[in-house]
Every structure is written in C-alpha cells, then in structure tokens.
Design a protein that fits this description.
The complex is a heterodimer of chains A (272) and B (328).
Chain A lengths: L7 E2 L5 E2 L2 E12 L2 E12 L3 E5 L6 H8 L7 E6 L2 E2 L5 H6 L2 E3 L12 H8 L8 H6 L2 H20 L15 H14 L4 E5 L7 H18 L2 E5 L3 H7 L2 E6 L2 E6 L1 H5 L2 H8 L5
Helix pairs in contact in A: 3-6
Chain B lengths: L2 H34 L6 H16 L6 H8 L12 H22 L9 H23 L16 H11 L7 H23 L1 H11 L1 H6 L4 H27 L8 H12 L4 H21 L12 H12 L14
The chains are: A alpha/beta (272), B mainly alpha (328).
C-alpha cells in the first residue's frame, strides 16, 4: 500500500489533505457479542471514504461509533489531531459531524423545509429568551438560516416539495431530504449510512451525483457505507472492507478489488 | 326569544367557559405526551403544587414550618411579609422550572429508552411524592388564593343581555378572564413551537429521538424545557381553579376530568385539547339541562366519561389525533 500520511492526489486530480479523523484499535461489544474487533483506519480531509462489507460485518456499528451513538468498549477516536473524550451524539453533531440513517430518520410530521431547518440547529446562536420574544438577533438569524437552507434545496432539486410533510414523500425523495438536513449543518464530516439502499437505478445515479457534487463544491469530507459495489468503486477514493467485525482490507478501490481476503468474503470460499 | 332558548344559550356559554378550564389541564398532558411519549399522571398534582407554592409565597408562609417546629421546638409559621401577586407568580415559575430540572435529573434521565408503562408508573410515583411533599412544605389546610383576578357575576353582561332580551345572563368574570388567558396561552405556545428554534427542536424530539440527536439536539435540555412549560401551564390551571374553589387536595383530581378531554381531542394535539375541553364543558352542561331532569340529575359526574367511552369505541385516535394506520 502507498504511504498516504501526508495527503495525496486522486486519479481525477483532487487534492486530499491530512488526517481528519482517526479510529485507533476500536472494539465494540454488546454483552458477549463482538460487533467490531480491533479496527483502525483514518479519514482524510476532503476524501470520500467508503466502508463496505457483507451483511452483519459491523459497518453501521462503526458509523455509530463515529457519530457517538455507540461508545466503543476499547480504542480511541481522534478528531482534528486530538483525542475525543466520550461524547453524546448531540455533542458530536455540534462538532461538525452530520449523518444520515440506514432506515431514514426524518421528522415525518414536519415539512421538508422544517426538517432542514432543524439541521441548522447547531449553527443557531440566539438565546432562548430572544427566541421566545422574537427579538433582534433571533429574527435576523432565522432569515439567514432560511437562506442557507434554500440554497441546499436548490442544490438537491427539491424546490417542489418544500412545504410537504416528509412522511408523504416517496422513499427516494425522503432519502434526499435526509441528505439535505445533514448538509444544512454545513458539516466538516458527513456520514452516510447506505445512502442508496432500496433505490432504483435512476435514483442511485442522482444520489451518486449529489454525493460527488457535495464533495466537490463544498469540500465536505464524506464517509459512507454502501452495498452496491459498482457505486462504491465509482464514488470513493479509499475503501475499508469489514467482515465479521474485522478489517480485511483497506486501500484504493483497485487495491481492494484485487485483495484475496475481500474476494473470499464477498464470493465465499470453501473451508476444507 | 323564549326563556327556554335563552337559558339554553346561557348554559352553553357557561359550558364553554368550564370547558376552557378543563382544556387548561389537558394542555399540560398534551405537551409532555407529545414531546416524550409520557402520560404524566402527576400533571394534576403539579397544578396543586404550583397553587400551594403560590399561596405560600404570597402569604410569606415558612416552608416546612411543621417539620421545623417539630424538630427544633420553635414556633415559626410566617415570615411576616406579604408579596405582591406578580412577584409571587414569578417566584413560583422559578420553583416549577427547578422542579422540571429535578424531575429530569433524578427520574427521567435514568429511565431513557424504557417502556412507556414504566415511565407512566414513574409519574404515578412522582404524583404521590409531590402530593406529600406539598403537604409537608405548605400544610394541608384549605387555602384561599387571591391574585387579584375579578370574580363574581359580570354586571355589564347581565345588564346588557337584560336590555336586549329581557333576560340577564349570569357569567362569572373569573371565567371570562380564564378564557382570555387560555387563549393567550395557546396562541403563544403555538407561535413558540412553530417559529422558534427551541420550538422546532421540541417538535423534532417529539417526532424522532434518534434523528433529533443526530442534528445536535440535547434530549435532556428539551425534557427540562417541556416539563418547565408543563409546570407553567399547571400553574395557570392551578391559579384559575384555585381562585374558583380554593387551594385544596381535590384540585389534583381535576386531572381526572382532563382524561375524557384527551380521549376526545387526542393525546397529541394542542387544538384537540382545547376543542375537547369545550365539547366536554358544553356537553355536560347541556346534557344536565336537557336530559338531566328526566333521569334524576347529577349527570355532570359521569357524562364526560361516557362520551369518552363512545369515542374510544368509534374513533380511538380522538378528533384531532394522528390517524392510526396499521401497515401489514
């Protein structure tokens, strides 16, 4: 494997920076079950990092560790060069890490616009008293955030469903709104848990385009989990492969594709 | 107009106003249920506790006087001051916020992700604790609550209606004040939840805990906020009911009247709580007026519950509750 510690340039000419997040020897246990076993990897500024693996490999668990929903039994999470203390998920979000969920977690009763406005929550600074009284800063702030959200709505081409309660939207659009809510936070790191699960080819193409554009236009670092191998290989700069809670491969798509352990995990191997 | 009809109109108006009082209590339930899925059995006791605290602070009562006197052999009862009503109200709001923080810190925090029935049991415990605590703190005798709200028959309405119809309407001025205050309360709560950042966070938490966490909302803060607002609503209900019938233990039982209101209005709808309260208020007064004499009267005691039962059979989600759709 190439040494990439000082950043690198991708095949399509994008500059990838230094380490943003580093997972060091993460182990996660639930009672007697070991979901993640001693895994280390890093995510670099500006890259698209994929985590792949068969069902039950522990990919979502890993994403949950990054976003603070799970607390690792062992190991350390380093973010921007310092060790992250134990944090609640909302504190992780306040640090600039936004995420989407495998099974869409939107506020179903609220409109697309309101859903995305909640994404701005970590960026709103006015106090509760100001909010309650609708004083100076609160009012100005609201319109600024509204503007930022409208830009993302344009970007994701969902102007038409601005006021629709998201519970009524078709699956593919809900996924898009969820991405929008995460983007509204203007995150440093965006975590996507199977952003294309359950989509048809056309929807997958749209979503891939949005992911690439987010990375390209906003410079957002992205870590994603995906099942569709074709999509992963097209999108990502580097790939971590997990199987039964262990890391069995790490590298560029080409390196991973030719890794014998990875091929065995995906195609199966005879144990004789 | 015939007197019978005029009387019916008067009964309806009185029923509407009684309904507002029910709605005030139901509102507290809805707020907490929406945000956390907890049916807060202690809501009625919170109203009692708020009213007791208000009266105690206003009259300069020494809290825990009995306990202090029993332990130290002293004989203290009053600080000897009398606070203006608005100061006492603001202090009581502070006490209710403190209560919300304590409830979150020592009860809810430890029961995160538990079954709703366990949280419900916890609020029953909380209700009995607060009942005893309120007694110990402020004494158990019936107290008069006077924050300067107008009371008694509204002479101007009586006179005006007498001039128009030759029949004077009896409307309690306290009921009018209660209606105005309840309307203001509902409007401000609605505006707060629709247009403020915290209100949006509140709705978000009510909708999906996990998603709320992922956008950086602290559940603990929201719970303290919700319980504070519910405490404030309890205070308003406590003031109104206390001014009407004195501050006494039975105040906590008005919570029971809120139950049929919630069955009608749905547990998750603020407008539902209001409309439900109004329907129950008008329904029970009109029923007593029209059918009561035929079946021996005293229908007000059970009418609301029978109506709620009918709703449970034919429209279990209430008038405004979210529709129950079973997906197979």
């Amino acid at each position: 494997m190439k040494d990439m510690s000082e950043g690198y340039t991708t095949a399509d000419g994008r500059k990838i920076g230094g380490t943003m997040m580093e997972m060091k020897n993460i182990t996660l246990r639930f009672g007697g079950v070991v979901a993640i076993k001693d895994i280390s990897f890093d995510i670099r500024e500006g890259e698209i990092r994929a985590i792949i693996g068969p069902n039950g490999a522990g990919k979502s668990s890993m994403l949950n560790v990054i976003s603070g929903f799970y607390i690792p039994s062992e190991g350390e999470v380093w973010f921007h060069g310092s060790k992250r203390p134990q944090m609640k998920p909302y504190q992780v979000a306040q640090q600039g890490i936004a995420r989407t969920f495998q099974n869409i977690a939107l506020f179903k009763g609220m409109s697309t616009l309101d859903n995305m406005m909640t994404g701005r929550m970590t960026r709103m600074k006015s106090s509760m008293a100001q909010q309650a009284m609708w004083w100076g800063k609160a009012q100005k702030e609201e319109s600024e955030h509204r503007e930022a959200v409208e830009k993302i709505i344009d970007f994701l081409e969902i102007q038409a469903i601005r006021k629709t309660p998201v519970g009524r939207l078709p699956y593919g659009l809900q996924k898009r709104v969820e991405l929008g809510r995460a983007l509204a936070a203007e995150p440093k790191l965006l975590l996507l848990d199977e952003p294309m699960a359950g989509m048809n080819v056309e929807e997958k193409e749209d979503m891939s385009r949005f992911i690439l554009d987010v990375n390209d236009e906003f410079g957002t670092t992205i870590a994603l989990i995906e099942h569709d191998m074709g999509v992963v290989m097209d999108l990502s700069d580097r790939v971590v492969v997990m199987d039964y809670g262990k890391k069995i491969g790490d590298g560029t798509p080409d390196e991973v594709r030719n890794n014998q352990d990875v091929i065995d995990a995906y195609l199966g191997v005879s144990h004789d | 107009m015939p007197d019978q009809l005029l009387f019916a109109i008067e009964v309806t108006l009185n029923g509407l106003m009684a309904g507002v009082m029910y709605a005030l209590v139901a509102l507290g339930f809805v707020l907490i249920f929406k945000a956390s899925g907890i049916f807060n059995y202690a809501q009625g006791v919170m109203a009692l506790f708020a009213a007791l605290t208000l009266v105690g602070l206003q009259n300069g009562q020494v809290p825990f006087a009995h306990l202090i006197n029993a332990i130290f052999g002293t004989d203290v009862h009053h600080f000897g001051w009398h606070l203006p009503a608005f100061v006492a109200i603001i202090l009581t709001i502070g006490v209710m916020i403190l209560l919300a923080i304590i409830v979150e810190r020592y009860v809810l925090k430890h029961l995160v992700n538990q079954e709703p029935i366990i949280l419900f049991m916890a609020t029953i415990g909380l209700a009995y604790f607060m009942e005893g605590f309120g007694d110990m703190m402020w004494g158990s005798e019936i107290k008069k609550l006077d924050v300067g709200l107008p009371q008694g028959i509204s002479e101007s309405i009586d006179a005006t209606t007498y001039n128009w119809f030759g029949y004077g309407f009896f409307i309690d001025r306290l009921d009018i004040v209660a209606t105005v205050i309840a309307a203001l309360l509902v409007i401000s709560l609605t505006l707060f939840s629709q247009y403020s950042k915290q209100g949006r966070a509140l709705r978000a938490v009510a909708d999906d805990h996990q998603a709320a966490l992922s956008v950086g909302i602290s559940l603990r803060f929201i719970w303290v906020l919700v319980w504070s607002i519910a405490g404030f609503v309890a205070l308003v209900a406590g003031i109104m009911w206390g001014a009407k019938s004195g501050v006494q233990f039975s105040l906590s039982l008005i919570a029971l009247k809120a139950l049929p209101v919630l069955m009608l209005g749905g547990f998750t709808s603020i407008p539902g709580a209001i409309v439900g309260g109004l329907i129950i208020g008008v329904g029970e007064k009109l029923f007593e007026f029209a059918i009561g004499p035929m079946i021996g009267g005293a229908t007000e005691n059970w009418f609301a519950y029978v109506l709620a039962l009918l709703f449970l059979v034919f429209r279990p989600q209430g008038l405004f509750g979210e529709k129950i759709i079973e997906r197979v």
